[in-house]
Write a structure and sequence with these properties.
CATH topology of the largest domain: Four Helix Bundle (Hemerythrin (Met), subunit A)
Distance between the termini: 80 Å
CATH class of the largest domain: Mainly Alpha
CATH architecture of the largest domain: Up-down Bundle
Largest sheet: 2 strands, antiparallel
Subcellular location: Cytoplasm, Cytoskeleton, Microtubule organizing center
Shape: elongated
GO molecular function: gamma-tubulin binding; microtubule minus-end binding
Number of domains: 3
GO cellular component, one term: spindle pole
Oligomer: single chain
Protein name: Gamma-tubulin complex component
Structural class: mainly alpha
InterPro entries: GCP, GCP_C, GCP_C_sf, GCP_N
Radius of gyration: 40 Å
Strand order of the largest sheet: 1-2
Length: about 625
């Protein structure tokens, strides 16, 4: 942005005050020619007629020439002052508070810069050249001066009117191009190249905005671009702003541009996960080639037909030939991510908050589980509000599905239900059987998360002296270690299986393979979580139930603590012995649980309580004894 002295003052100082040297010409003649040239810059033209008449340099036949020269200079000065005033006002706005959204128009700035570099600079150079030629003249030749600058008379008038409309009405975006196009139709034909350059400068700015729009990731868009987010700066849905659409882009072409950009951003999400399929690579290559072709078209005065053909071909390939399979895979992955977020609790912060509320709210335990009870749903909404999570409201809701028996955890009665809106959009992808199996996993994960949170509270309560007995400390330490390890194991299994499914989706030839891929995924996940192993599933259920019973456990009763401790040891013995028979299914979990051979010593010997006080100390104790 240009700041400082106005251009007409710069021209005056640089061109004439320091460079005029008439070398031997009569002083009066030299002064008159200097005054005429300065007058052409819009400077000191008030008494030019009287001065020329008194010097005998002006005749009645040349009076009209002087009037034209004076008008030309004033027009030039007016153009320069309009530009300087606009830039000064724009600079002031930038420094004002809350100036976001009031930035100078990048299109208008480009037009003004182009006019300075062509029309105004050419006019200035003409005057400098004329100054050099007049040094050899012996008389004040007004006619010669007029002949040299008369071609600028109509041109500067039109440019001045155009600048006045552009700056006076604060034009932005496509409105700038509209004014320039209208003014070009009345410009002298000899200036066609100049105004072709103006339009090309506009098109290059538009190309940079289009290139940003066609990128594979979302970027903040200029407020002068004709595609804008619907709901704020970071929205993922977009709309066309009709008044910002350039003249050479009709409504149908604008819709195609919108569609291509939206689809490519959806496809671009796959690049973040390292998609390497051939159809993906082909689409990206095709897309980049079209961006280069668009740049070539916009680097010269535009032919609407070629631009329309480019976008029709581009849109057709993206929507049908290449993008179809990839777009389907993207949609499938998005729908699966919703399942992973809620049924497999990948939204960990949300479910941590829910478990905290379930632990603190006594009503949910006293409430009789039934399908008509809305308390779980209300708690789920409250937990979401606490962590500022609202996406779930159109996807799932929490409810009781049946009544628990006396020996069954009330957490086993909870389930997630797909919202009607989600069923309409993706219900065909997830059969009731799949949703039922997902809920089975959801309940298991919720119970483990609940137990882990409960044990964390008991663990931290030791700092306040609540668990001072050594046996109690050993019991809580061992149980906390087991549940923490089970949490880590489940997180590893879910992360690995979800990663494998996403990889299979990207490599699939069509979306028709999704049901079989989903069924295979569920079977592997259920197997890894022991749902298909009745004995291991029963032992896991007993472990969770033992933790849930600690809410009402009286730690001051030594007999109860001893019984609980014995029950835990027997449970872990059974688990390890069962694991010996099903090594393939539980090898990873057994390795994690048997940290420092903690539980193998428990299974193959009859240790004292002292030997099992803390799993993390076993290595140190063994080393000391050896």
């Amino acid at each position: 942005m240009r700041v400082g002295r106005p251009m007409w003052k710069d021209f005056q100082a640089q061109s004439f005050q320091t460079s005029l040297d008439f070398h031997g010409l009569p002083s009066l003649c030299a002064n008159r020619m200097q005054q005429i040239l300065l007058c052409l810059l819009g400077y000191n033209s008030k008494n030019i007629w009287k001065q020329l008449v008194s010097a005998g340099s002006l005749q009645s036949s040349t009076m009209v020439y002087v009037n034209t020269l004076v008008h030309l200079g004033r027009t030039f000065r007016s153009i320069c002052e309009q530009m300087e005033h606009y830039r000064s006002a724009a600079m002031d706005k930038l420094f004002e508070e809350n100036s976001i959204g009031h930035r100078p128009s990048v299109y208008l700035n480009a037009v003004l810069v182009e006019l300075e570099a062509t029309v105004l600079l050419n006019y200035r150079n003409t005057l400098i050249q004329l100054d050099n030629e007049l040094k050899s003249e012996s008389a004040c030749n007004i006619v010669k001066i007029f002949d040299r600058v008369k071609s600028y008379h109509l041109l500067l008038d039109r440019v001045s009117a155009m600048c006045q409309e552009l700056i006076g009405s604060s034009c932005r975006g496509a409105r700038v191009l509209e004014v320039v196009h209208r003014c070009v139709t009345v410009m002298p034909f000899t200036s066609k190249d100049i105004f072709d350059g103006l339009i090309t400068r506009y098109q290059l700015i538009l190309f940079e905005q289009l290139k940003l729009w066609f990128s594979l990731s979302a970027h903040p868009m200029s407020d002068e671009f004709f595609i804008q987010p619907k709901d704020g700066r970071h929205s993922t849905s977009y709309k066309i702003v009709e008044e910002m659409v350039p003249l050479f882009i009709d409504a149908a072409m604008a819709e195609k541009i919108l569609y291509i950009g939206v689809k490519m951003k959806e496809i671009g999400a796959m690049a973040e996960h390292g998609n390497s399929s051939s159809d993906f690579a082909n689409l990206i290559s095709f897309h980049e080639q079209n961006i280069c072709r668009l740049g070539e078209l916009l680097q010269r005065p535009l032919c609407d037909i070629r631009l329309r053909q480019l976008f029709e071909h581009w849109h057709g390939c993206v929507s049908r030939r290449t993008c179809g399979p990839i777009s389907s895979k993207v949609e499938l992955e998005k729908e699966f991510n919703k399942v992973a977020d809620y049924f497999f609790q990948q939204q960990g912060q949300l479910f941590d908050q829910l478990v905290d509320m379930l632990l603190d709210d006594s009503l949910v335990k006293e409430c009789r589980p039934s399908a008509s009870c809305t308390l779980p749903g209300r708690l789920f909404e409250l937990a979401a509000d606490c962590v500022h999570h609202t996406a779930h409201r159109h996807i799932v809701q929490l409810r009781f599905c049946w009544r628990a028996s006396e020996d069954q955890s009330w957490l086993s009665c909870l389930e997630l239900e797909l919202c009607p809106e989600q069923i309409r959009s993706s219900g065909h992808l997830f059969s009731p059987n799949i949703i039922s199996r997902c809920n089975e996993i959801f309940r298991l994960l919720l119970r483990v998360r609940y137990s882990h949170c409960l044990l964390n509270r008991l663990w931290f309560s030791q700092a306040n002296g609540a668990l001072t007995d050594k046996v109690t400390f050993s019991f809580v330490s061992a149980l906390h270690f087991v549940i923490s390890t089970l949490c880590d194991y489940q997180a590893n299994v879910i992360r690995e299986q979800c990663h494998n499914l996403r990889g299979s989706l990207r490599q699939a030839n069509s979306s028709e393979a999704f049901p079989s891929l989903m069924d295979s995924f569920m079977y592997k996940l259920e197997s890894s979580l022991f749902i298909h192993s009745p004995d291991l599933w029963l032992l896991t259920d007993k472990l969770m139930f033992m933790c849930e019973c600690l809410e009402g456990f009286e730690f001051r009763e030594p007999e109860q603590i001893s019984c609980a401790w014995d029950a835990l040891k027997e449970l872990m013995k059974s688990f390890f012995r069962q694991g010996e028979r099903e090594k393939e299914k539980v090898a990873q979990l057994l390795a994690m649980l048997n940290y420092n051979e903690y539980f193998s010593r428990l299974v193959y010997s009859v240790p004292s309580t002292d030997d099992l006080s803390n799993p993390c100390q076993c290595t140190t104790d063994s080393t000391d004894r050896s």
